[in-house]
């Protein structure tokens, strides 16, 4: 069993009967959704899933997990999602899979947020992983110039055909190659205030529990 599968299965054990569960996106969240599907089928687990991407929605539906959108539930009990980086003070970068907008909306409406990662994602300071910024296509070239001027080393994310990758909301992603983010709160505020930016991948003070996959087994930290 690989580390992603191990933490995915461990995280699914936090899901109890009757819960509304935010279903994350990515190769780690994939295993958690598979395990929830198994529990629904084999154990009769009764849950409602709130997917954070069309890909997770399709997977969950295929497994027979009942699905609602974030607008169709009062709140989410627990969201389980992957992350691209987690710092020592438990801030995160997400959006490597381009699903940051729905992921942040679902996480913001969740009573508890649980991240599942392998040990390679745990870092001292955020920023080696390029920071995804979701932007409206109109004016995106202007934003690229603005970020260039600020020395943020922006790159428009492309799909396999070499065209701008479109998110589930038909926006673009600009990845900022910052190397190190020394002031994440200030950067988040700056990006929040930039016209044309829809959302960014800095997930600050959002996670309650982290399950890290280590070769010797999953290690769980309750951080809030
Ligand atoms: C998608 C995400 C993912 O959670 C993040 O990219 C981690 O993915 P993976 O588990 O495949 O490494 O934020 O937008």
UniProtKB/TrEMBL annotation:
<comment type="function">
    <text>Catalyzes the reversible conversion of ribose-5-phosphate to ribulose 5-phosphate.</text>
</comment>
<feature type="binding site">
    <location>
        <begin position="25"/>
        <end position="28"/>
    </location>
    <ligand>
        <name>substrate</name>
    </ligand>
</feature>
<dbReference type="Pfam" id="PF06026">
    <property type="entry name" value="Rib_5-P_isom_A"/>
</dbReference>
<comment type="pathway">
    <text>Carbohydrate degradation; pentose phosphate pathway; D-ribose 5-phosphate from D-ribulose 5-phosphate (non-oxidative stage): step 1/1.</text>
</comment>
<dbReference type="GO" id="GO:0009052">
    <property type="term" value="P:pentose-phosphate shunt, non-oxidative branch"/>
</dbReference>
<protein>
    <recommendedName>
        <fullName>Ribose-5-phosphate isomerase A</fullName>
        <ecNumber>5.3.1.6</ecNumber>
    </recommendedName>
</protein>
<dbReference type="InterPro" id="IPR004788">
    <property type="entry name" value="Ribose5P_isomerase_type_A"/>
</dbReference>
<feature type="binding site">
    <location>
        <begin position="94"/>
        <end position="97"/>
    </location>
    <ligand>
        <name>substrate</name>
    </ligand>
</feature>
<keyword id="KW-0413">Isomerase</keyword>
<feature type="binding site">
    <location>
        <position position="121"/>
    </location>
    <ligand>
        <name>substrate</name>
    </ligand>
</feature>
<comment type="subunit">
    <text>Homodimer.</text>
</comment>
<dbReference type="GO" id="GO:0004751">
    <property type="term" value="F:ribose-5-phosphate isomerase activity"/>
</dbReference>
<dbReference type="InterPro" id="IPR037171">
    <property type="entry name" value="NagB/RpiA_transferase-like"/>
</dbReference>
<feature type="binding site">
    <location>
        <begin position="81"/>
        <end position="84"/>
    </location>
    <ligand>
        <name>substrate</name>
    </ligand>
</feature>
<dbReference type="GO" id="GO:0006014">
    <property type="term" value="P:D-ribose metabolic process"/>
</dbReference>
<dbReference type="GO" id="GO:0005829">
    <property type="term" value="C:cytosol"/>
</dbReference>
<comment type="similarity">
    <text>Belongs to the ribose 5-phosphate isomerase family.</text>
</comment>
<dbReference type="InterPro" id="IPR020672">
    <property type="entry name" value="Ribose5P_isomerase_typA_subgr"/>
</dbReference>
<feature type="active site" description="Proton acceptor">
    <location>
        <position position="103"/>
    </location>
</feature>
